[in-house]
From TrEMBL:
Cited Pfam families: SnoaL (PF07366)
SUPFAM superfamilies documented for this protein: NTF2-like
Gene3D superfamilies referenced in this protein's UniProt entry, alphabetically: 3.10.450.50
Superkingdom to which the source organism belongs: Bacteria
Protein name per UniProt: Ester cyclase
InterPro entries: Cyclase_SnoaL-like, NTF2-like_dom_sf
Length: 151
């Protein structure tokens, strides 16, 4: 067995699963696929405020984003994998047509960057760590000022 080829195959498979989540679940709203891609014991190490760090919490967040932005989708700029962990840098896009974090729809087109890491084991997403530029998103929907004080 060639360990280098095995490691590469694991990484490529993991990247494909994460890409399907980004494109088909988050972007396409395929929650039946969500249920197949995410392990039942999934752990989100960086849940959004008020969210839970489990599969139900991730599903709730994805649903809330699709309700707030029916055209929600991401452009993946790059992915890198080390073993079973996939790091993805992407920009989410959407039109604010539903309530978001208690903010009434504005009709504005928004975009915000995200970097996340997902662990994929046995073909399922088991863990997540991520950082989203939500300050930028809240600026775009008019909740926060466009500039920091004193800038």
């Amino acid at each position: 067995m060639n360990t280098m080829l095995d490691t590469h195959a694991i990484a490529e498979t993991a990247k494909a699963i994460v890409r399907r989540n980004t494109e088909e679940v988050q972007g396409g709203g395929d929650f039946a696929l969500f249920d197949r891609l995410f392990a039942d014991d999934f752990v989100d190490h960086t849940p959004q405020p008020g969210g839970t760090p489990d599969k139900a919490g991730a599903r709730l967040l994805y649903g809330a984003l699709r309700e707030a932005f029916p055209d929600f989708h991401a452009v993946i700029h790059w992915q890198a994998a080390e073993g079973d962990r996939v790091t993805t840098y992407k920009t989410y896009h959407g039109t604010h047509q539903g309530v978001l974090f208690g903010v009434a729809p504005t009709g504005r087109k928004v975009q915000f960057d995200t970097v996340d890491v997902m662990r994929v084991q046995d073909g399922r997403i088991t863990e997540h760590w991520g950082v989203a530029h939500l300050y930028s998103l809240l600026q775009q929907v008019g909740v926060l000022p466009a500039m920091l004080p004193g800038a």
